[in-house]
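HOLO CASE FILE
Compound: magnesium ion
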Amino acid sequence: MADSKTSIDSQSRDAETDATLRLEGIKKSYKIGKSGEVEVLHGIDLVLGRGEFVALIGPSGSGKSTLLNLIGLLDKASSGLMFLTGIATENLDDRALTKLRADAIGFVFQFHHLLPAFTAVENVMLPLLAKQGRPDDAMRKRAAELIDKVGLKALANNMANNLSGGQQQRVAIARSLIMQPALVLADEPTGNLDTKSADSVFDLMREVCDTSGTTFLIVTHDPRLAQRCDRIIELVDGLIASDKKNTQVLTKGDDSPLPVAQRAAT
Ligand SMILES: Nc1ncnc2c1ncn2[C@@H]1O[C@H](COP(=O)(O)OP(=O)(O)O)[C@@H](O)[C@H]1O
Ligand SMILES: [Mg+2]
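Model generated. Tokens follow.
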């Protein structure tokens, strides 16, 4: 752990630069058997700014899910510092971590984990319900607006298990947004979707990013989908191997990449 001066410096820097996430020297080891340990993240430094739309790519086993779980406060780093919306996380107790996770982070997984016997709109309400205890009109209204935003107005009252894979993933995205998180973490969100559904789920996340300032960090295997992001970070063997601004962003309806300058002009 670094000394407290480092933390304070990092915190004030985040306030100045509007960083949603800052990682400094993050390492993660897993225990293997009784006494063994294996380090899978070897020192990750990363800053994500407000409203960035970022792809995280890399071979299977390179540590992408491990990194997302740490950033999502679902697991703890072995060492290093993490600041989420400027808040230092290393000394927070479980209760404070749970609160920060609920307030600051939305999750979208490959398998959406919707509750099958609840309707689409009820699934979207769940994170807010968990916080407030019981439903009210404001909550129903907000969930209905999000269902509308993800293009499922007509299906709002369908049971989740009567929706297609792409529709369920749209519900999962709406659910991830109901707490108005600063950061959405998506681990292969389109991994089990056909190309067309995957494209439209990406378009949707992009639109949310552009209109709300939410930062997105999206793990994907698909280079074509990574190409839709503004920045592409590649993880190899537990280290960031490359971190590049994408100058040929593919956007909605595009089938060929255009340089950013040209895109702005069209
Ligand atoms: N709970 C765990 N215990 C032990 N090893 C793990 C655990 N989770 C992941 N690993 C190992 O950590 C490495 C990175 O895994 P992971 O983060 O799932 O990679 P990716 O998402 O890039 O495929 C792999 O070698 C994997 O076997
Ligand atoms: Mg993974």
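CASE NOTES: The first helix runs from residue 4 to 17. Residues 30, 40, 58, 60-66 surround adenosine-5'-diphosphate (ligand 1) (CB under 6 Å).
CLOSED: yes
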